[in-house]
Write a structure and sequence with these properties.
This protein is of the alpha/beta class. It is built from ten helices and 19 strands.
């Protein structure tokens, strides 16, 4: 239930994705009163992200292993023709795919156990006087919070309300996820560079022997026949799906069940780099709302967790000292300077507009220096700078 005037709180966190849940839980564990508002009525519905956790995240953060897929050590890069792919193998467990729906539920239970008050089905409206206005199942309500945290995605309403920067360069992505019978397969992350299917980014098949993810992403205005059609075309031709059972209507060999077993995901991906103004005296941004996504690889889970840790340190000090000026130290512009190389590569990838250019790029990756550079990007541990 939600209506009227709610008890005052130290921090109002808006959005219960990974960044919002992590920030809220960590602040509550430091003794602060936290309210978490999420517009979804269930955290295990409307999952948008592929949920790829990289080695650095797996090493540094305590993630529930029961919600992580098998380790992936192989990356395969394909030109538009799908012939002569570049296979990169690592000596380390580089990626694991999170089963995000139950992971969100588990994280929410931990948040509640830490004392976070979670309001589901509750939308953030904005500020009115000294209060924040929420709209829940029973109508509008107001809550007074010393600070507000925007963890509400790439098109953040909190950013708009606080007068902070907002994401302007966005990819749009869509994927299908379906379970497969466990089989003898080398878990691998397959990526196709083809501007006809994924203009400015990639098409992918992620097969860890437990689930298969088939997706495309790119600039919305550059899909020749729309993103959904691109996904259908890719799913029908992707070379990495050879031998992988496909979902269908439940008939025929290799079926994994009826159509509803396919989970469809999609949403915007900010790739313009960390935003410059991500804090004001009244609050700050984390996760996609802050642009905490790698401009080149579009990976956002490791950056969102690391920026959330920084946000918790800053807010904890501000709450303990009573000095709002502490939030000046939460400076996106200073951190953004560390992304210059990846921002330059993002601009380069965005200019790949023909299959011939894409094929030439993969040919360069086949060389010794090209493979070394690809390994640094794909198997490196520099997804986000240390604040």
């Amino acid at each position: 239930m939600l209506a009227g005037r709610l008890p005052a709180t130290d921090v109002l966190v808006v959005g219960a994705g990974l960044a919002g849940l992590h920030t809220a839980t960590a602040l509550a564990r430091r003794g602060h009163d936290v309210v978490l508002a999420e517009r979804r009525t269930r955290l295990d519905s409307t999952v948008r992200t592929t949920g790829i956790f990289v080695r650095r995240t797996l090493e540094d953060f305590d993630l529930p292993p029961e919600h992580l897929g098998p380790a992936i050590r192989r990356m395969v890069l394909y030109p538009p023709s799908h012939r002569r792919p570049v296979v990169l193998d690592s000596a380390h467990d580089e990626y694991r795919v999170g089963d995000m729906a139950p992971l969100y539920v588990t994280q929410a239970r931990e948040a509640a156990a830490a004392g976070v008050r979670i309001l589901l089905g509750t939308r953030y409206v904005g500020r009115r006087g000294g209060h924040h206005v929420l709209h829940g199942p029973d109508g509008p309500a107001e809550v007074r919070a010393r600070f507000v945290v925007g963890a509400d995605g790439a098109r953040s309403a909190v950013a708009r309300e606080l007068g902070l920067d907002r994401n302007r360069e966005l990819l749009i992505g869509a994927e299908e996820v379906y379970p497969v019978p466990r089989r003898d397969v080398v878990p691998a992350f397959h990526c196709v560079v083809d501007p006809r299917l994924a203009p400015g980014y990639l098409a992918w098949v992620l097969d860890d022997g437990h689930q298969v993810h088939v997706g495309v992403a790119g600039y919305a205005d550059r899909f020749p026949r729309g993103m959904r059609q691109a996904l259908r075309e890719f799913a029908a031709t992707a070379p990495a799906l050879d031998g992988a059972p496909r979902p269908d209507d439940g008939a025929g060999p290799g079926a994994v069940g009826p159509g509803p077993q396919v989970e469809r995901r999609g949403g915007p991906i900010p790739v313009g780099g960390l935003l410059r103004r991500i804090a004001s005296p009244h609050g700050l941004l984390v996760g996609d709302a802050a642009g905490a996504v790698s401009p080149l690889t579009a990976g956002g889970l490791d950056p969102c967790l690391r920026l959330s840790e920084h946000a918790v340190d800053v807010l904890d000090e501000a709450l303990r000292t009573g000095r709002r000026t502490v939030l000046r130290g939460y400076d996106g512009a200073a951190l953004r300077a560390r992304f210059r190389g990846r921002l330059t590569m993002r601009r380069g990838l965005s200019m790949v507009r023909t299959p011939a250019v894409a094929a030439a790029g993969i040919a360069l990756v086949r060389t010794g220096p090209g493979q070394a550079a690809a390994r640094r990007i794909l198997f490196g541990n520099g997804s986000f700078p240390d604040p």
